[in-house]
Amino acid sequence: MIAVAILAHPQVALFEMACAAELFALPRPEFENWYQTDVVSFESSAINSLAGLVLQTKTVSSLEDYDVLIVPSWPTSAGHVSAALEYQVKQFAQQGKRILSFCSGAFLLAELGLLSQRKATTHWRYEEAFRSRFPDVEYQNNVLYVFDGTIGCSAGSAAGLDLGLAVIRSDFGYQVANQVAKRLVVSSHRLGGQSQFVEAPILAVPNQFSHAIEWAQRNITQAIHVGQLAQKANMSRRTFDRKFRSSFDLSPKEWLIQQRIERAKGLLESGDTAIEVLASQSGFDNAITMRHHFRRLVGVSPKQYRAQFGAT
After folding, report:
1. Of 27, 66, 103, 165, which alpha carbon lies 20 to 30 A from 152's?
2. Which residues touch 210 (CB under 8 Å, ≥6 apart)?
3. 304 Cβ partners below 8 Å, 6+ apart?
């Protein structure tokens, strides 16, 4: 069982705290194995939070009993970090245990030097302040989340859900992550970066571009060409490519590949279909192409993935 600590403090953001609790602390009897999670604090009393809400947490002096630490948020201005908290979080990192930050939680990790020479991100509105205070961090400015070794950082508030689902997918597999996402009524794997959410107007009615994307998702096992998508969106190929990249920070071709890889992961987990057949069922021309992209995007071969996450 994986033991998780969610760090609470007097200025903790309630939405990010709730996201962490929903992902990792909610009982899930439908799964044989799940996380054992505590909301912890180094404070000796209850925490007064936003709107007069009081948080009763588990007071700890050590993080030794935990495997994963989640920092839901942290003040973005330079402030005092208690000696106990600093020591415990640094020791946690030195032991090679996983640390996840949601939104402004990256400020604590950077303050403690844990993100030096590492890739990290935070909410787009804090980018300038973060870069200024921590120039030694390899800031990623258009991602929903990023991993560097055992440390993962999410961007804006809801991107903590994306990071958490990625961790669940890594720990328990694609199908379990999908079930958790379905219960949350969110996508199990959003593509693209923060740019698609920054100052982007909401369309009053669905348009042909969104219909083309939905059509591609429904028909991902078929041979789909980018020109075909452009036609369905009633756009020139050049305009469609530009619109697609501004929306997803990906080329249409790369997006199609990633969608097919997600399909392949689900098939690998749910059965023992031959790789050659599975490649076709995922929309790839052949198994060689699928293996290439699978290893490039997932980091292991389809065979290794099935051995780790397959139903047997």
Report:
1. 27
2. 203
3. none
Q: pLDDT of 146-167, one tens digit each? A: 999 999 999 977 889 999 998 9
Confidence (pLDDT) at 154: 94
* φ and ψ at residue 148, rounded to 5 degrees: -140, 100
**Which is nearest to 167 in space by CA: 15, 19, 302, 24?**
24
Residue extents of the structural domains in the chain = 3-184, 201-312
Bridge partner residues of 139 (DSSP): 120
**Cβ neighbours of 57 (radius 10 Å):** 19
pLDDT tens for residues 42-79? 987 788 877 778 889 999 999 999 999 999 999 998 87
Residue with tokens 């530009």: 242
Angle subtended at Cα 53 by Cα 47 and Cα 54, rounded to the nearest 5 degrees: 30
**Cβ 20 vs Cβ 102: under 8 Å:** yes
Q: How far apart are CA 69 and CA 62, in angstroms?
A: 12
- Alpha carbons within 13 A on the beta-carbon side of 251: 8
Beta bridge partners of 222: none
CATH no., domain 3-184: 3.40.50.880
**What's the CATH code, domain 201-312?**
1.10.10.60
Beta bridge partners of 95: none
